[in-house]
Design a protein that fits this description.
This protein is an alpha+beta fold and 291 residues long. The chain has eight helices and twelve strands. The structure holds 2-acetamido-2-deoxy-beta-D-glucopyranose (NAG) (4 copies).
Length: 291
């Protein structure tokens, strides 16, 4: 008799606490660079093979913002989160993550509630926004582009001057330029280490900022050639990105100057194909002189 009661009790306890178990993720971040925002929600023990047995509800500040009803195969985002969606086939693998456009994303705590027949569970994920740097993207671009351009032009000039006139006359001048150039370079590198968060984010910011400049100029029409910005848009991104990644990956920058940083310069015509680029190895000129 007693064993039977115990078994029955145990069975009822098991039924009552039939829980879905979540892979707990406390928070996720998005930045200026995210086009879409994904709020992750992973259930570890989904057993059903049939989508009709699953029901997902996402809540924000106590209101339902998204409902997926498997029995009706129906997704229903609320008006504030109209771009919100989940991927039903992935739900069978326990993935109930909510995707939405950045424009719909609001920081705060999101609740993911999943029901599989009589089993259910929920988890809370906080969505945070991370400001990528102290300056606005446009300011960042100026901070980065001008010193880098200044350095490249300087070393280019320096290389040409020293290669062209190898007379004694320019020797003192060359040493002076070399010292000044090294100081400038060190300053810019230190500055860059302080200001550049991550190469990936930088690339996105460069694109974003140059894109907005292009659009402003196109609509404003204040005489500055838009074409210049459009050419800059792609190439400046590539140049800056390769330079920055270069010294982010290899921390010993001066050693690596022996190798070249190649700058693709678009020739006349479409700048799309690689063949159409002539490549200038500015820094290798400088390094020929230095090492
Ligand atoms: C934002 O984008 C980054 C990099 O692409 C990604 O790792 C991150 O998960 C995204 N954040 C959100 C909330 O989707
Ligand atoms: C899923 O369940 C529904 C109703 O319970 C049933 O009609 C359907 O055939 C099932 N689908 C599969 C793939 O088992
Ligand atoms: C939806 O937007 C309205 C008006 O902007 C606001 O009052 C309401 O709180 C929002 N709901 C959610 C869930 O954010
Ligand atoms: C989200 O929840 C966490 C933990 O409960 C809390 O510390 C945080 O302040 C909440 N965030 C918002 C934006 O309400």
């Amino acid at each position: 008799m007693w064993p039977l009661v115990v078994v029955l009790l145990l069975a009822s306890v098991r039924c009552g606490s039939a829980q879905l178990i979540f892979n707990v993720i406390k928070s996720v971040e998005y930045t200026l660079c995210n086009q879409t925002v994904v709020i992750p929600c992973f259930v570890n023990n989904v057993e059903t093979k049939n989508i009709t047995e699953l029901y997902v509800r996402w809540k924000f500040k106590g209101e339902n913002i998204f409902i997926f009803d498997g029995s009706k195969r129906m997704s229903k985002p609320s008006s504030n989160f109209s771009s919100a969606k989940i991927t039903p086939p992935e739900l069978l693998r326990g993935i109930a993550s909510l995707k939405m456009d950045k424009s719909d994303a609001v920081v705060g705590n999101y609740t993911c509630e999943v029901t599989e027949l009589s089993r259910e569970g929920e988890t809370i994920i906080e969505l945070k926004y991370r400001v990528v740097s102290w300056f606005s993207p446009n300011e960042n671009i100026l901070i980065v582009i001008f010193p880098v351009l200044a350095i490249l032009l300087f070393w280019g000039q320096f290389g040409i001057v020293t290669l062209k006139y190898k007379s004694n006359y320019t020797k003192e001048k060359a040493i002076f330029l070399l010292v000044a150039g090294l100081l400038l370079t060190v300053l810019v590198i230190v500055g860059a280490f302080l200001f550049i968060p991550e190469p990936d984010i930088l690339e996105c910011e460069v694109k974003w900022a140059l894109g907005s400049i292009t659009m402003n100029k196109a609509s404003g029409g204040d005489g500055i050639p838009v074409g210049l910005f459009q050419i800059l848009k792609d190439d400046a991104v590539k140049v800056l990105h390769s330079i920055c990644q270069h010294f982010w990956k290899t921390q010993q920058w001066p050693q690596d100057w022996k190798r070249s940083v190649f700058i693709p310069m678009p020739k006349k015509g479409t700048a799309k194909e690689c063949l159409n680029y002539c490549t200038i190895a500015l820094i290798s000129h400088a390094s020929k002189v230095m090492f």
